[in-house]
Fold:
Amino acid sequence: MSNTDARVRYTRMVIEKSFLKLLEKKPVNRITVTELCQMAEINRATFYKHYLDIPDLLEKMEGKMLGDIRALFRKCGDIQKAFLTMLQYAKEDFEKYAFLGSENGDRELFSKICDACFESAYPMTETNLLQFDNWQRETLHAYITYGIAGIMKSWIMNGMAQPPERVANIMVSLCKVVIDGVREGRVAL
Structure:
């Protein structure tokens, strides 16, 4: 990679880190380009080379995060590994997940993560749901996916105190209990 690429990556990283620090203290709609540039120690022209405005910065950061989640699911062969990998990824980048998904950031972020997981996990879980009709499959998948997103949000917002392995095991166990319950007739759909 050229020096220009390294400078661009560094500049974006500085902007993103400064943005997360500001999100920790105040709502996204109250953050200005001027204060972000002051914190990042860059000029406004540099900011505008990379982003249109603050909402564009937020959207691009979320877009990369969601793209990374989709890619993680595509690489993993099974749901347990996918959950574990996603949680480890989130733990490595705690501030990004915690602050972007906070009350100051995008309150819909975890729904977006949920949608990305739903799209990506569906092919992995579909074989466990073959005996159900389409509506039952979609209902089960939605229920499980939103439950998983809730667990992930709670885990992140509580400081990721539990190890990712434990949380992934709980996620998989709950999925299995729900699917088995429907399959065995203990839960009616």
User: Anything to note?
Assistant: The chain has a mean pLDDT of 88. DSSP finds nine helices and no strands in the chain.
